[in-house]
Amino acid sequence: MRRVFGVVVSLVAFLVPGAVAVAATGTPVDGGTAMCPRAVRLADGRVLLTVTQFPPGGPAGAIYEHAGGGFRRVGTVADPDARQGLCCTTLFELPRQVGALGAGTLLWAGAVGQDGGGERRMAVRLWASTDAGRSWRFLSTVARSGTSGGLWEPELAVDPGGRLVAYFADESQPGRSQVLVQAVSTDGVTWSARTPIVTGPQPGHRPGMPAVRRLPDGRWLLAYEVCGFGGQYDCAVRSRTSADATNWGDPARLDPVVTIADGRYLTATPTLATTATGRVLLIAQRVRAANGTDLPAPAMFTSLDSGRSWYATAAPVVVAGPGPASARTTARSWCPRLTAPACWR
Questions:
Q1: What local confidence, expressed as pLDDT, does residue 25 receive?
Q2: Where in the sequence is the signal peptide annotated (predicted)?
């Protein structure tokens, strides 16, 4: 089941590093169907956005550039494997050379194949652009599932040694509902075997939706949800840090829930950003009180000390509430990179 969500310009200010908060006007990017938006600010200051759209030839990654107060379509990632389904795409600009890929190369990754039926073999696929998203070439398959279990929600980083790292959720591991894994590459073409980052202590735990950013203090922060936990903390957002973007500690460890002083916490679909002033921003689909009650006003968590402590600020879009449980579940499945209010629309 898919639910269609509008993509609004006002969200971008809270998803790109260094952006300034603006009033949420809800201006559509365009009039078509769009899902799972992800924005990135390039080194030259331009803001690019990717969304999943559904043209007649099959799902594709639509690329937009912010210009003149709005967005205009500048490119398309038309992966042939995406004809059997496309989910949870991302954009990443290389901060340094990786193999033959020069600094400034724009990378796009997506999970493909979820509509392939009972014999599906989902994959995470990687494409590259050297002209700010106007044209794209296929680079590699980061990983392919060996079972019908899915691979979801890719995220990219470059470690201190100059290796490209891909993080994603993996439903194909024996005895586990879902785990977070990573693969590394020295050239963006050949990838290592998957290694676990977070499994959780119980087989039914479902860590997912990885969001990774380098912190102002030089460490890397991983924010993720753990569904299958049960109770009021089901799908609560948790976090851990790494000194080198690849060593994250014991995969079975269940990290603390990210909370603020009054006990409020976030659940489902975390998204991270850092700003030029050193702030770390974290937002998710829902905000709950310390007792687990859903709160009507969404909130964004902000940290001034590289994720050691958090406080709440207003979210970019205000809505009446998170909606029925069925809508929340669908949003969690199909909007892994949206801020909370967009998923609720």
A1: 45
A2: 1-21
The pLDDT assigned to 338 comes to 32
Give the C-alpha separation, 345 to 5, whole Å. 6
Q: Is 175 exposed, middle or buried (0-12, 13-18, 19+ CB in 10 A)?
A: exposed
pLDDT of residue 319: 55
Low-confidence spans in the chain with pLDDT less than 70:
1-27, 317-345
What backbone phi and psi angles, to 5 degrees, belong to 30?
Answer: -155, -175
Name the nearest CA neighbour of 286 among 240, 233, 212, 239.
Answer: 233
Q: How many CA atoms lie within 13 A of 116 on its CB side?
A: 21
Residue 329 confidence (pLDDT): 31
**How far, in Å, CA of 232 to CA of 250, rounded?**
24
Tokens 């489902």 correspond to: 268
Q: Which residues of 285-300 are buried (b: 16+ CB within 10 A; e: fewer)?
A: bbbbeeeeeeeeebbb
- How far, in whole angstroms, is CA 293 from its chain's centroid? 25
What pLDDT, on the 0 to 100 scale, is given for residue 187?
98
